[in-house]
Amino acid sequence: MQMFLNLKKTPWGGKYTVSNASIGFKYSISPFYFPVFSEKIFYTQINFQVSEINESDFLYHQITLPPDFSKMIAKRRCEFLAGRICAQLSLKQFGLIQCANVGMAADRSPVWPEGIVGSITHTSSTAAACIASSDIYKNIGIDIEVIFNDETANSIKSEVTRYPELNVLKDEALSETLLITLIFSAKESIFKAIYNDVGYIFGFDCVSLIELNQYDMLFTLTTSLSPEWQVGDRVRVAYRIVDGYVYTSMVVAKTS
């Protein structure tokens, strides 16, 4: 199946969209706003529209149906498909033309082809994936968030942030709402970047912001999570703020 014979210009969200009369899912390629700077890392970002889609949309894009597909609402189906399309396109950039499908583990994390590490993220209208060789990088974590409104920020503030982190924020020019969004997104990226080493879900309080710079944030682990990640270890998360969105990324280089 030739997937991209129907590339057409679109007036919304980006330069191109995939169009076919038999499918409902539409997307356009978007600039990649995540702060990941390396020729060894491959990435894709798309904009998409939520619509009622079915098995034919997944078949058309050669994406395997998730196990709970029949229970998914339209929004969740589109988000899942969008993320896997980004992963597929990133893998093709890498050179994996015939092995571009990303599975899903029992814990719902992506299962990448052998020799690949990567990360997928999405909002309700934007998705992105970032991949690299496991010979060069141990793991990658990326996250995108729409900047929270005041009500959302206040409702999750106590769960996402610790008192010392709020002290770090006091002298910054950014609003507290934006800063809470940044911390939330950064901790999501940290979780994705070290989850394979840790092997279980850990809370926001396991890492704490200690420094905020113009382009990145420095965190310290407040508890030991695994032999590789011990209390006191420091991790750096890069970020960008673009058009009402926060983009964060953490890349773990392979050391041996």
From TrEMBL:
Keywords for this entry? Answer: Enterobactin biosynthesis, Magnesium, Metal-binding, Transferase
- Annotated residues that bind Mg(2+) are located at 143-145
Record-annotated 4'-phosphopantetheinyl transferase domain positions? 140-231
Catalytic activity reported? apo-[aryl-carrier protein] + CoA = holo-[aryl-carrier protein] + adenosine 3',5'-bisphosphate + H(+); apo-[peptidyl-carrier protein] + CoA = holo-[peptidyl-carrier protein] + adenosine 3',5'-bisphosphate + H(+)
SUPFAM superfamilies named in the record: 4'-phosphopantetheinyl transferase (SSF56214)
Positions with a binding annotation for CoA: 76, 84, 121-122, 143, 188, 192
Highest rank taxon of the organism: Bacteria
> Which pathway does the record list?
Siderophore biosynthesis; enterobactin biosynthesis
Q: Where is the 4'-phosphopantetheinyl transferase N-terminal domain?
A: 70-132
Q: Name one GO cellular component term.
A: plasma membrane
Per the record, the GO terms for biological process are:
enterobactin biosynthetic process
Which cofactor does this sequence's record say it needs? Mg(2+)
MF (Gene Ontology): holo-[acyl-carrier-protein] synthase activity; magnesium ion binding
The record's note on quaternary structure and interaction partners says: EntB, EntD, EntE, and EntF form a multienzyme complex called enterobactin synthase.
Q: What does this protein do?
A: Involved in the biosynthesis of the siderophore enterobactin (enterochelin), which is a macrocyclic trimeric lactone of N-(2,3-dihydroxybenzoyl)-serine. The serine trilactone serves as a scaffolding for the three catechol functionalities that provide hexadentate coordination for the tightly ligated iron(2+) atoms.
* Family as reported in the entry's similarity comment: Belongs to the P-Pant transferase superfamily. EntD family.
Protein's name according to its UniProt entry: Enterobactin synthase component D
Gene source species: Intestinirhabdus alba
Please name the taxonomic classification of the source. Bacteria, Pseudomonadati, Pseudomonadota, Gammaproteobacteria, Enterobacterales
